[in-house]
Every structure is written in C-alpha cells, then in structure tokens.
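Subject: two folds for Thursday's group meeting

Dear M.,

Sorry for the delay on this. The cluster queue was jammed most of the week, so I only got both jobs back this morning. I'm pasting them in the order they finished. Each block is the input sequence followed by the predicted structure tokens. Could you check whether the formatting survives your parser before we put anything on slides? The first protein is the one we discussed after the seminar.
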Amino acid sequence: MFHKILIANRGEIACRVIRTARRMGIATVAVYSEADARALHVEMADEARLIGPSPPRQSYLDIAAVIAAARDSGAEAVHPGYGFLSENAELAEACAAAGLVFIGPSPASIRAMGSKAAAKALMEAHGVPLVPGYHGADQDPATLLAAAERIGFPVMIKASAGGGGRGMRVVSAPAEFARALDGARREAMGAFGDESVLIERYLTAPRHIEVQVFGDSHGNFVHLFERDCSIQRRHQKVVEEAPAPGLDAARRQAMGETAVEAARAVFYVGAGTVEFIVPGDSEGDAFYFMEMNTRLQVEHPVTEAVTGVDLVEWQLRVAAGEPLPLRQDQIALAGHAIEVRLYAENPARNFLPATGALHGLHLPGGEGVRVEAGVRQGDAVTPFYDPMIAKIIAWGEDRAAARARLARALADTAILGVATNLGFLARVVADPEFAAGAVDTGFIERRRATLLAPPAPVPDIALAAAALHRLLPRGGGPATGGDPFSPWRQTDGWRLNSAPAPRSLVFRCGGDELAVSAISDEDGWRLALGDRVCRASGEWRPDGALAVVVDGARRTLRILDHGGALSVFVGGDSWVLDEIDSLAPPAGADVTAGRLTAPMPGRVVQLLVAAGDTVRAGQAMMVVEAMKMEHTIAAPRAGIVAAVHYAPGELVDEGAELIALTPTDAASPGA
C-alpha cells in the first residue's frame, strides 16, 4: 500500500480522499491555487503545495505543476478526484513517466472511454445500442450541421471530452445551430482543453441511469448497481439516488451486465461509471449507452450507502495492485439513498451561480445522514470553480424513509451570505411526483411552477422567530455578566411601578417593512405581527437551533445572524430579514436603470453589439464566462446601446456596468 499520495483536486472530493487515506494510514499532499490558500482541503492534508494562480488553466489543469508537486513532496501516487484532470490521459502518462501511480484507469482506457465519441464508436462495435447521432472526427461546422439535419431536430451538442453539463447545448432549429456550436466549443475548451463535440438526437423526457463499475489489474470486474440521476438543471445533476426507482430486476441485471462488458472491453482498472439514457415506457425495456466516465462520480456516496462499500478505499487498493475486495455475488443492495447537491446559485435567475462569503453555515447530521463539504463558515465561494457547497445524503430502509430523512436534513440546513438552491431542493424532495418516483430529465421544467414559485410572504412563524431571536438572551440565560438576579440583566421590558414596556422591532424583507410589537408576560411574549396578535415563547437548544412556540404550535428552526441581517430557515425555505431603524428614511430608488451589470465576477468571452446599435428586448448583447459556464447578458428592453465598457477577454466584477442602454423613445428626436 502507498505511504503518501497527492490529491490533484480541491473541494469536497479532496477532503473525502484525505479522510479515507488517513483512515488507511496514508499521508496526503494537497495542491491548491492562490484562491484556495485557506481552503479546507489544504488545512486537512498533511502537507500542501501551491501550484499556480486562481484560474484552473494556470493551476489545477497544469499537468507539469501537479507532477512537480508530487515529485517534490515524495508522493508515490496521484488521485485525480473528479473534474479538472480526472479523465486526462496526458496526466496518467505524465505520472507513469515520473514514476508515479495514477489512481485511475490506463491512458488507453481513458482515451477509449473518456472521449464520448470514441466510447460510442467502441460500444457500437460491441453491439450496444446508441442514441442516433454523429460521433465522427470531422469537426467542420458544415459537417456538424449536416449531421444534425440528418439526425433531425431537436439535437444535443455535447463536448466530447467532458461532462458535468459543460459544453452542452440543446438546439431546436438549424438557425440556432451555429451560435450554439460556438458556445459549446468555447465552454468545452475552457473546461476540458478540447473543443471537439458530438451530436445526438435530443430525447425530451428520458431517464438518466448510470451503473457504477470497478475493475482491477487481475482481470476482475464487478458492478455496484445503478443510480438514477434524472433530475438535472442545465444538463447538470441536482438529485441522485440508488437504486433507481421503479427499475425492474430484469432491466437492472441487463444494464449491470452491459456496463461490466463495457469496462471489460477496454481492460478497465479502477472506478468508472457507465451512463445510459432510458426512454419512456413506450419503448419497452430499451436503454441506450451515452458515455463512460473514467473516474469517480460526484454522486458516489449513494452507491456507498446502499452497498456498504468505500469506493475511495477500493480505488487506492486497486491502484496499489490489490484485487477487488468482493466478487459480484458478494455485493448486495440494502435500503435506499438519495443525494442532493447544495449549490451557491439562484434558481429564480435560471440557476445563475452566486459568489460571496459564507457568513453563516450550518449543515445537518444525525442517523442516516451524511454530508460531504469542502467549505466551512467564513470561506468564500469564488467565480473560478464549481459553486457546490456540499452534498447531503440520506439513507433509509426504503425510498420513503430516505426521502423523509432527507427532508428533515434540508430543514436543518442553513446558509447566510450567498444565494443557494436550498429551498428549491426542499421543494423537489417534497414534490408528490418525486415522492411517487416519477422522475425524468424533464422533471424540473415540467414542475417549474411549483419548484420555482415566487418567494412566499414572510410567514408568522418566521417573523415571530426573528423577533424572539432579538428578545431572548442567548443560551437560555441572562444576557450579560454580573449578578444573575440584577434587574439590569433582564430583557423583558420591566419597569419600576409600571406594566412592562412594549418593545418595537422593524424588519425589512425585500421591499416590505414588517413591524413587530412585543410585550413580555409570564409565559413569554405577546407579539403584534401586523394585524395579528399571538402569544410566543422560545428557547435556545444546545445545538444552536431555536425552539419556537406560537399560539401553542411548536417549531424548531435555524436562524443565522450577520451584520444585522437575519436569515430565518423554516422547512428548507428561508427569508432574509434586515433589522432597521424605524426612523430611517425609505430605501432610495433604483440607480441602475438603463444599465446592464455583471451578475457575478467573470470574464467577457463574446461581445455581440457595439455602441450605437439598436437592440430589441431579450436580444443577446454579451457573453460572460463564470464558474466554467457561459452566461448570456440580454437586453431587458428595446433601446440603443449608448456605451460598451468591456471587451472580450477582460475580467469584470460583480455589479460592474457592462453596457449602457438608452431607451428607444428617449433617443428619438424631440424626446
């Protein structure tokens, strides 16, 4: 077994590998960019090496820097994690040339299966059914368009070298093809260093089911059953579960055997995932090969939860030359597991990634709940990397138990400082179609009205909790030091020879001001919440949660506080309440009218207009790349471009004015 390994990655996967290696008595070396100098994985590892500036191309994608760090540190092997260089044959070859073990498949296997196009050609030769498409080497745009027309629209453009939703575009008509192809290629080059794409028929509402496979250097191969990853946004997985709901035993066996044969065809060694697309019931038991990911997957914890296997440990043992620990007949399913990916993003703005400091962070725990995170409170979500904050996994004896446990875990999760998809995830888990197992890749779009509903008004329980947060002494005891029986320590508004004085609190949520009047009584407080008067009490629990009782109804919830802002979390949904001075003037008018500003830090990759151009509402004006994804800046209304402030290649800060737009009527003569 290895004595020391280097982890060529960051975030929660680096932390996960470090934990497993430590349990096995293996020393670890972390690599980090300038943006990650204080990252959790750097702190956890036995030692760490700086490998470059913040952009991935200059750090985590720099093979020479990774190899130099491994050799200088005395590591014997390199674990690539997932993403970045995990499916890069050049890294595997560089490791071999440097006398290092690459903890993954051979360069030949990576090339055969790591490329979507090559994998499909190989599977086609072995008789595995494929979705109709083009996987050829000729990447001329005219050839690709002709292939798309032959396949029939709508089609999917996919980056041949990678996954995770990057370099993917759905195209509905020939007129949209050229622009979609350009965007997919730019994104693929930025994320994987390879702009090659393939074209496939786009199936509108299939299921995405993948099978975990493992091979060793002794010729042994097994599968560890399947995962359903159908719930996706922007072609990136959001919810994964194992086993796949509603999958019958015959299809499960057929898919598992096909996946093993795919691994056997390329003499696969290590952990891999064979991904299938499963059409609707109208096509019977059909399933089509999509691709093989020659690495560990983000969603591997659900497989671990239902098989009892530590897949990272298996990776290390197989890479060290050991045989697989179990035979196929020794691997069994037990229970059900569901994983959700908690992202810094704004679902209401088409899941736009968010950046900022995690001023408050509470992640859940308890029986059957597992959390994998690469951040902690005080860390920052930067524009350079994937905005995932954590993975929350729940296991139960059956799917219903796992779903109920996950719902409770999400209700006990709280984040302050960045927008997140927490409320969206809670609504997915509570959705009746999800509860029934009716999932497919069109689930989010089909349930959009429910899952992406506008924010609800602040409920009484949240407003009462915010008031109690200010009124109750922390820890359930007196608020300050000194004599515990002194009247000056009381916070109940007590006055000499008089009834308790009312306390007035004012909060702002969005554009609404919410006033609360509180009067202490022997059982707690009488709160006037607008027109409603209720009796409320509360107490702090040892774990930091607040137990609130409003008119006899008890609820335990989380509140995070930073700089006068309270984030109140109720059942997965949250409301940010700013405590304000009741004498302060009202908020000013919007000063950004007529401007187009950057929604987040990033880099301009394409400029589509010039000063003086007339644009229509919704017209694309600029493309900004942030967090390895492209975001189109569109005109909010018709107008004339007054000024363009950034050119392609330039970096922009969040909130920076990108384009000044003058309304058409204001620019007309006599206006």
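Second protein, same layout:
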Amino acid sequence: MRALNSNINPSSQTFKDNVVEMKKLIELLETHLKTSRFEGKEKSIDRARTRGKFLARERIELVLDKDSPFLELLPLAGLEKKGGFGAGGTNVSGIGIVSGKLCMINSNVGTRKGGSVDQTTVFKGLRIGDITRECKLPTINLVESGGANLPDQATIFNYGGESFREITRRSALGIQTISIVFGNATAGGAYIPGMSDYAIFQKKAAKVFLAGPPLVKMATNEESTDEELGGAEMHSRISGVSDYLAEDELDAIRMAREIMEFIPPTKPHFIPNEKIKEPLFDPEEILGVVPANIKTPFDVRELIMRVTDGSEFSEFKAEYGTTMICGWTKIHGYPIGILGNNGVIFSESANKAAQFIQLSNQKNIPLLFLQNTTGYMVGKKYEEGGIIKNGAKLINAVSNSKVPSITLMIGSSYGAGNYGMNGRSYDPNFLFAFPNSKIGVMGSEQIAGVMEIVQRASAKSKGTPYDEEQGKMIKGMMMIEAEKKSSVWHSTSEMWDDGVIDPRETRNYLGFCLAILYNQKIEGAKSFGVWRH
C-alpha cells in the first residue's frame, strides 16, 4: 500500500491555535472523567476499608491480567441527567483480558449510593449487554448492590428485567457469565448471580435474598438474620444458589480467574503475525489537524494517516465523489475499510460509499466510519439528480452490511448524514466521539433560521405583522438550546456514543476494538435490499 503524504504545516499559527483549543476540550473531558470516577463519600469508603473491602475499580484491576488494557465504556452516561447518581451511574463497565481471554467486566460501585441502580445504570447496562452479545464476550460481574433505587422504580422496572433475560440468552449461545457477590445482591439483584453460569459468594459478606429480614417479617411474621436468610454459607451448603464459597475478596477473584482458564477460547478470525508499522506522522498532531471549530473544513486523510499502520491507505475511487473518502488499510495489523467525510454528501459520494460497503462485505473486512458531515446536499438541482434515491442507497448498504463496524464522530454529525455514516440507530459495534463533535437534525443556526422563516410565513398568512424584536429574542434562545443539545456532553450523557475519547488515543482505541471484533468469525452480507438506479 502507498503511504499518504501530509499537507499540514505544524509550524503554522492556525495549527498551533487549534492545538490550544483542542487541549481546552480535552481538559474538560478529563474533568468530566474525573467526576465519573467518584466512588462515594469519604465516610462510605472508610467504612468499606474497615470491612476489608476493595473499591469497584480496584476489583477490576485485580481480576484483569497483568498489563491488560481496559476499554472503559459509557463512563459519562447520565452526565447531564438531573436527579440521577451522576456520570457513569453506579457501575463501571469495560473490556479487558482475564486469563488470556477477552472479557466484559461489570463492577458495582457499592460505596456510591450503596450501589443502588438508577435509570442511567439500567440503560448503561442494556447497552453493555448488546456489546457483550454482539462481540461474544464472557462476562465477569463484580456484584455489590442494594438493588433498584426505589424512587426510580417506575422508570426502570420493565427495563431492569431485560438484563436478567440477556444473561440467560447469552448462556444459551455459549457466552458464559461469572458473578462474584461481595455484598448485597437483593430483590431483583439476586437474579444476577441466580441466572449466571457460575456464582461465587464471599463468606460472611454476600447477602443474596429476594426480600431482606424486615420485609420477610412484615410479609410472613418470620424472624431471621441476614446470614440465615441469604448468607454465602447457607447458599453454598443448603440452597445451592452459590457454586463456590470464597474466604475473602482475593479468594473470590482467584476463583473467577480460575474459571476463566477453563472457559473455551473463541477461534479468532484473524491474528496479526507481522511486525506492526507505526504511523509515519505523530498522533499528537491530530490536535492541530482536526478543527476544534466544526465549521472549519479539513481533509480526513490527515487524520487517517496518523492512525493507520505506516500511514498507508489504499484509496478507492479517489477521483470520484470526492467528499467521501473510502479505502482499505491496517490498524495494529488488522485489515479495515474506512469511510470518511470531507464535507456534505453528494449523490456521487453516496454511490461510491455504497459500492465500497458491498466490496468490504465481499472481503469480510470490518468498517470504520469517520463522521464529519452536515448531511446530504439539498437544492433543486440535487433533488432532480436523485439525491434521495442515492442517499437511500447508502443507508440501505449500511443497514444490510453484516461485517462488524466502528463509528467515530470527529466533527459534524447532522441529519440523515448521521444515518448514512452508521450512527447509533444503525448499531455499530462501537461508537466513540471526539470532544469537539456535535450531533443533531441540523446545526443550531439552521434550526433557528428555519423556525424564523416558518414564523414569518405564519404571520403573513394571518395578516399580522411579524414582531422583529420578539423574533430576534426567540431565535437567540433557540440557538442556545440547540447548541447545548447538540454538544458531545449531551450526546454522551444520553448514551448516543460509548465514550468521548482524547483524539491522540484514537489508534489505541481502534486497535483494541479491532482485536475484539476479529476475535470471532467475520462474514459479510451476501445480499442487500432493493435500491433505485
């Protein structure tokens, strides 16, 4: 493959100014991530320490292999949600390596609101379940939770049951779940270990019951202690709910790692066996390449050459549909097809991308979508030229593609351009965002401008004068609200992505995701839906 050449001048003032602006966004990202790592008040943490407990993130470190990467997912879920338990909810989730095997790990933050489950935690868990099933990953649940947060019960009850169902469905597919119970697993939470393939209970710590002593007393007038009703020894010796009785936390984690040793490994589709080439250009330069201001255009090839092996890229139809860049390359030795926007999507761009997706499916090569577009081109000329049928052709190809996919939002993600570039509703296996990115039906100025035109037309049809002062005020308020709702912090809070990442870490994120995707058989689509010509 041919290596790409850069046209960027890192010494230019524009480049330097952009680095400054991007670093401000990364500092804000780090601030939010620091907030998400909050594991409870000092009093709660001190109480856990006196009881010999590890914290949620410490348990993850202990269960992982030495030097294993950990791809944390949805750390900022619920960031802007009022009334919730804060960014990330009360669960830390991500993918790492345990006993030499890729594994999904979920760790309840028992020192944060007692590990109770709010709405954010439930919906985050459902997305984690989707990734686990699609990537065929065994799961280790590190359980310590007070169950559903009762004030949220009306909004989470129906959805909470889905997480139990998915454990058993994965089991039927041979995707196994190990649950270690370090503390409370009450009410609905008792079904987490109950439905797992393997359940490990910690002696004198695990409390697993459908109803605690006070509720049992109220319902049946029966008196019992926590240990009698749902202790680890009772469940290990009498009920059979527990499969392994652990002396302490370290013993429980040792048991989980031992079980993982005997879980059959998957047969990888492909493992790189060649020496990996580093990019020819410094990934640090991405901060100057990708504009902090999404209105500033840039050549997506400049990003591609800073994340691919040897900065190599075999471009497809380079002279045709030039606002859509398509081509094949490798990242950390894994073959991948890349589609990247260089602006608005024209008919030619859509046609090229649709053909490229078909070819990648023929070759069983995963796809990476780099989103930076205001959407499909509009106007009389383009409607006559069939922008709808050609745009639909791309959406058809994305919808029916069977190869695994990753989407990365690097700028604008507006309108049906989000759909054609494999947005959240098209089920990419992973979707990440840069801190400068924005998403919505259209930009804030366009939304406010369209509404102004509509209001002026409405006033004219009624024969009343248009109030210029009031109109200006409404337009300004609408722009502020639209800008806020299109920000990456709002979209990640709503779980429209799986995480906001530092652009300099793009290659590492993509490489690890590809290792996960290539860990199972990859087979592209053999047919696509009907499209107009």
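Two things I noticed about the second structure. The longest strand covers residues 177-186. DSSP finds 20 helices and 15 strands in the chain.

Cheers,
T.
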